[in-house]
Amino acid sequence: MGSRTWVEDTEVSVKAPSLSKAGEAAAQLKVTPFNTHTNGDTLQWTPSSWTTKPIKQDVIYDDRAAVSTALAKLERSPPIVTPMEICKLKERLKDVALGKAFLLQGGDCAELFDYCNSDMIESKIKLLLQMSLVLIYGAGKPVVRIARMAGQFAKPRSSPTEQYKGTTITAFRGDNINGYSPEERNPDPSRLVSAYFHSAATSNYIRASLSSGIADLHSPLDWELGHVKEECIKAKYETIVNSITESLRFMKTVGADSAASSLETVELYTSHEGLLLEYEQSLTRQLKTPPSAHHPQAHTNGTHTSDPKQYYNTSAHFLWIGDRTRQPNGAHIEYFRGIANPIGLKIGPSMPASELVPLLDILNPSHEIGKITLITRYGASKISSLLPAHISAIQASPHDGTVIWQCDPMHGNTRSTPTGTKTRHFESILSEVSDAMRIHKEMGSFLGGVHLELTGEAVTECVGGSEGLDEEDLEGGGYKSFCDPRLNEKQALELAFLVAGGFREK
Asked: How far apart are CA 107 and CA 206, in angstroms?
């Protein structure tokens, strides 16, 4: 029912935003248990065909009418990213898959709405710029930068509830679902709309910062080293900067930089885990593919088309499927198989090598190069026994040479202290990345990127590193994360130097 207002004593009916039929299917979704039989035949894909599949990590709202209102608002809102930007990223990721570039992806474990401020956004941009500069210097190839920003709010949980002062309450699932305060744990559909506007504002400020010269290579020292006080790291970074400055001075002298506008800015793309499918569906639009990106695409029924319109998820440039939601017959795989965005697939210890190729057959039947990024997250103690089988499975399939291998050394190395504080050891993180590089080289493959949880803030959440942080330091007030522990600025930059060193040794 619409609301009513009065204009010059005339009654006017104001209609509430209407929800599409696809949106209604998402709003009224009831959870389907995974032991329920579903038709194994391939469905005709639509943005809402996932609602016919069993789903994991779903959110149950008390007020479905409020969900309908929120989704209707999202459906009417403009895209946060454009097909042109998405297609540019696809071209960059194709280069990564072919070994011509390296992928750096990083940001918060879970963003909070409070992180949508200029200082925190700039600190993460600068840290990613610093790390990419180090990696370019070490790897001798371009770096593709993707931020875990502007939408990385929701987090999967091992349990939907937790204990608080002897009472069972709903677990904190992220700012786009519920609040961290125990009084705000009931899932609130209006937070979906808030998530959209915070994501849009963050994306807008990223674009504005880049267009205003924050990434200008002519002045990389302006990026600052923030909270980094370690003289060794500062000296290494300044050595790289001085080398670049000298090169730019030479280019200017010989007139080679007159048209080098690429030296004044960079591309920085946004990403998040595609967990809340009702949100993702609402921002999935059938849009024209930019003319420069036209090439035959595979329909979900296996045929090909040169139709210039495709379905793009316009909430982010890049989305990934989590380790807990990659069931072959599940809702998340069904949704992701139909979007044109490049996508990531988390691979953990629970992924049998025999399941990997069938999943890629669903997600990338046309074997598009760079479409899929395989994000491995085993843990330092398990990578040597698990990664080789996954590499072998890909090498023996038609997907060989099409995927990007990316190491996530964070999630498999989370530990709890005796007091229950979650942390990660820098040495374990470095060990997993180093082993990934070694194993890929031994098997005739190559590591294409790293996926890190980090922040530009002066936090103390991960232990180890050159600063020598230990578990006692976690109790000193520097632990800020509401979810998983992140590398601070110094640890992240130190890791970049060590990875770069591995490339130079190679």
From this structure: 13
Cα distances (angstroms) measured from residue 456 to each of 55, 76, 119, 125, 225: 35, 34, 10, 8, 10
The mean per-residue pLDDT over the stretch 160-186 comes to: 95
Mean pLDDT, range 83-99, rounded to an integer: 98
Looking at the predicted structure, is the pLDDT value of residue 355 above 80? yes
Which residue in 63, 22, 284, 16 sits closest to 189, CA to CA?
63
Residue of 377, 376, 346 whose CA lies nearest to 363: 346
- Mean pLDDT, the chain, integer: 87
Q: How many CB atoms lie within 10 A of CB 414?
A: 17
Whether the CA torsion 221, 224, 229, 234 is positive or negative: it is negative
Q: Both tokens of residue 312?
A: 């793009």
In the three-class reduction of DSSP (H, G, I as helix; E, B as strand; rest coil), residue 295 is classed as coil
CA 458-460-462 angle, 5° bins: 125
Question: Measuring CA to CA, how many Å separate 229 from each of 239, 475, 499?
Answer: 16, 21, 20
Q: CA neighbours within 13 Å on the CB side: how many for 310? A: 29
Whether the CA torsion 324, 365, 310, 451 is positive or negative: it is: positive
b vs e for 86-109, b when ≥16 Cβ sit within 10 Å of the residue's Cβ?
bbbbbebbbbbbeeebbbbbbbbb
Contact call for residues 399 and 360 (beta carbons, < 8 A): yes
pTM: 0.89
The total of other beta-carbon atoms located within 10 Å of residue 396's CB is 11
Among candidate residues 74, 325, 21, the one with its CA nearest the CA of residue 190? 74
> Of 8-17, 27-36, 52-61, 288-297, where does the model show the most confidence?
52-61
- Residue 11 is predicted with a pLDDT of 42
Closest CA to 72 of 281, 228, 240: 281
Beta-carbon count within 10 A of 464 CB: 18
